[in-house]
Specification:
It contains 10 helices and 12 strands. The chain is α/β, with parallel strands linked by helices and 337 residues long. The chain folds into 2 domains: 247 residues, P-loop containing nucleotide triphosphate hydrolases (Rossmann fold, 3-Layer(aba) Sandwich), CATH 3.40.50; 66 residues, no CATH class. It starts with 9 loop residues before the first strand and ends in a 17-residue tail after the last strand. The longest helix is centred in the middle third of the chain and has 17 residues. The protein has an 8-stranded mixed sheet, with helices on both faces. It has a 4-stranded antiparallel sheet with strand order 2-1-4-5. It is found in: Cell membrane. This is Oligopeptide/dipeptide ABC transporter ATP-binding protein. Belongs to the ABC transporter superfamily. Its main location: membrane.
């Protein structure tokens, strides 16, 4: 694990994000507490609809209607509580202090402008004095990612492949030297070789620039290649969090165990891989009481129907499951090793 005193820490406390629906305001993220240690890469995994992207957007205070941040705080060292910022202060924080790579890179690029013009627009909007230096840095970043920087800056988004657009997104997120970087599904819809390349680039740039990085993904295997810590989300809650080798090696929450069992295997006993039963909840089907995972859980108990489990903290790891409250620490199992 890499830690660096120049990288900022991020502390998310009691974060709740709700969306207005015909049935009233329903929580997409509910009471999340999560700490990103300075200089580390934290992965957040979970199925679609678990609240991962909504949590990530909260780091920019960018949840859009019909959603709203109902309560909580997002403290970033050197910036303060992002959720209290507004207007010009918030605009300047986005890009300067917090860089964001969106899930579909092409959706964050202007199809009518070249990449270079969009880079210059970004620099001007943040009062960058030396735009030539900004372009030089962008070309260097693109070259490090295996691309011809001058050609890419002269191109429009439709002239670039999906992998190239993803790398352009990473470049734009880093162009203003942000120290907190959020990547939302950075390898989705990319081939395996391109995925591996982008993950390697993320790790290298993270270490070189002393960043604090958050990677949102549904792919446990992919994030295991680069992350230091892993948070597992389900039904808008963080159900497990800790050092990634420990979480994957000895998962404490039944949902984490299910996600790991579902990873396809290329060797060993392939029968060990099996899909999670049932479907993840939607905003409209989230239970109002009890454990959000109980309908799909193979260790459910009577208390799971009525009481939400509290987070059990053991040796720097947390997991929210009633079965853990009176059980010994999880043991590393052979199939997870």
């Amino acid at each position: 694990m890499t830690t660096d005193s120049t990288a900022p820490g991020v502390r998310i406390r009691d974060l709740t994000v709700v969306y207005k629906t015909p049935a009233g305001e329903l929580p997409a993220v509910s009471g999340v507490d999560l700490t990103l240690t300075p200089g580390t890469i934290t992965g957040i995994v979970g199925e679609s609809g678990s609240g991962k992207s909504t949590l990530a957007l909260s780091l920019l205070n960018a949840v859009q209607p019909p959603g709203r941040i109902a309560k909580g705080s997002v403290e970033i060292d050197g910036l303060g509580d992002v959720l209290t910022l507004g207007g010009e202060d918030l605009r300047r924080a986005r890009g300067r202090q917090v860089g964001y790579v969106f899930q579909a890179a092409q959706n964050s690029l202007n199809p009518l402008k070249s990449i270079g013009k969009q880079l210059l627009d970004l620099g001007r909007s943040h009062d960058v004095a030396d735009l030539r230096a900004l372009v030089r840095d962008a070309k260097d970043l693109l070259a490090r990612m295996g691309m011809d920087g001058a050609r890419v800056l002269d191109s429009h988004q439709h002239e670039l492949s999906g992998g190239m657009r993803q790398r352009v997104g990473i470049m734009l997120a880093l162009a203003l030297n942000a120290k907190v970087v959020v990547l939302d599904e950075p390898t989705t819809a990319l081939d395996m070789i391109t995925q591996a390349t982008i993950l390697r680039i993320i790790r290298e740039i993270h270490e070189e620039r002393s960043l604090t990085t958050l990677i949102i993904t549904h792919d446990v295997g992919a994030v295991a290649e680069v992350a230091d810590d892993l948070a597992v989300m389900y039904g808008g809650r963080v159900v497990e969090h800790g050092p990634i080798n420990e979480v994957i090696g000895a998962p404490a929450h039944p949902y984490t165990r299910g996600l790991i069992r579902a990873i396809p295997r290329l060797s060993g006993d392939i029968s060990l891989a099996r899909a999670l039963p049932g479907r993840p909840p939607t905003l409209g089907t989230l239970p109002v009481a009890g454990c959000v995972f109980r309908e799909r859980c193979d260790t459910r108990m009577e208390v799971c129907e009525t009481a939400e489990p509290a987070a059990v903290v053991r040796g720097g790891r947390t997991a929210a499951c009633h079965a853990l409250e009176h059980s010994p620490a999880p043991v590393r199992r052979k199939e997870y090793a």
